[in-house]
Amino acid sequence: MVLEAWFFIAAALLVVSGGAKLWDPAPTRGALQASGLPSGAWTAPTLGIVEIVAGIAGTVLGGVASFGVAAIYLAFAGFVAYALVRKIPIQSCGCFGKADTPPSWLHLGFNVLSAAAASGVALSRRPPVDVLGDQPLWGIPYLGFVALGVWTVYLLLTELPRLREAAR
What we know:
With 168 residues, this protein is mostly helical. The chain is built from six helices and no strands. The protein has one domain.
């Protein structure tokens, strides 16, 4: 049950971050440029669409689609690790479309754990959405806790690094 909850949070964050890339692709484009990766006008919106589709498909279908979520989080982990190890001066990793969300070790850890959770869900061969049928009240309280988890992780990844920087 914890594995699926983490997966739901990770998949929902993909949808949120994908939407942010569609809304404002500039932070993602800047992070890609600073890292020497392809950063054309189409790159960030395309990544956003892929994230949204993977988050939804992984949740509804499970299986191979959940491995797609794992692959995206492994790619994120690789990007964040590369930026941290190379000390690339990135003001934003571009994940949430905010100009002040620098990559952090916390972000790297979340990405790795999310990839592991998505892989575990994929191997379970049960679509994650089926978990809602096991919950009281059609899963509405469960989804409320997932939404709270999404908000908490969002704050940890976006505001905590900013607050730590301000405290220095």
